[in-house]
Amino acid sequence: MSKPLVIAVDGPSGTGKSSVSKAVARALSVSFLDTGAMYRALAWSCLNDGIDPSDTARVAEHCRTLDLAMGTDPRSPTVSVSGRRIDREIRSEEVTAVVSAVATNLDVRADMLRRQRELIAEGVALKGGTVAEGRDITTVVAPDAPVRILMTASEEARMARRSKQLKVAVEQTRSQIIDRDRADSTVSQFTTAADGVVTVDTSHLNFEQSVQAVLRVVKEAVGDDINLPAEAR
Ligand SMILES: Nc1ncnc2c1ncn2[C@@H]1O[C@H](COP(=O)(O)OP(=O)(O)OP(=O)(O)O)[C@@H](O)[C@H]1O
Ligand SMILES: Nc1ccn([C@@H]2O[C@H](COP(=O)(O)O)[C@@H](O)[C@H]2O)c(=O)n1
Predict the structure, then answer these.
(1) What's the CA-to-centroid distance between 232 and ligand 2, angstroms?
(2) Dist. CA 84 → ligand 2 center (Å)
(3) pLDDT at residue 232 in the model
(4) Could you read off the pLDDT of 4-46 as tens digits, one per residue?
(5) Using an 8 Å Cβ cutoff, are 36 and 79 in contact?
(6) N or C end of the chain, less CB within 10 A?
């Protein structure tokens, strides 16, 4: 690979941006950064330390000193706080219920922005590129990335996917998907594509088709500067 490759992917909850971005990073042998996992780690740590997630000053201070380590190998991404692996814990219902409260704290976002840019740069330095996904990557964290994608899917498709993933009734996923998007969209714009951002609608695509759709956008954006896997050429 001859050029640093930063692929920024945003989108609402349940569009598949995390799982698809991870598969794309694997296909391209570059780093993978799940920025939502960073906010989840902070939310978990607040709960673990008895900090009220709505106490903005305490949460911001906690974030500043958080010993957060993100493993960015797309074959086995990891999340650790103070040396403890919390990959499973950050996906709990308790964390999902409060993550928007810490992520809408503007001091927290400023701190996360710095950490995320460092991690993206590290992926470029060590692996020639990073696929970073979240809600403000195309607009705030990496607005100059050569590839910027907004992944979308209908509400029905997103709720159905989450329902299948968690093995719960579709209606039970509403708060995790729709209500969380509403809270998150007070600080980030991830429902419509910013200028220069390519929309990939996965409503009617299966997982593999979504991966291929993203790889096609990558190829169109960076042409022959990268070595795409044979199936994506
Ligand atoms: N195109 C697709 N078709 C069907 N299922 C998919 C597709 N893309 C992803 N999925 C499945 O949907 C579920 C949700 O995907 P994923 O967690 O990647 O979404 P997300 O956008 O990152 O959500 P969140 O922002 O809430 O973390 C997973 O079980 C994933 O395997
Ligand atoms: N760039 C981002 C990414 C995530 N968030 C917040 O984190 C929450 C969890 O994200 P998941 O992708 O793991 O569901 C999300 O609900 C947002 O509150 C963010 O603010 N910016």
Answers:
(1) 29
(2) 21
(3) 56
(4) 899 999 999 999 999 999 999 999 999 999 999 999 999 999 9
(5) no
(6) C
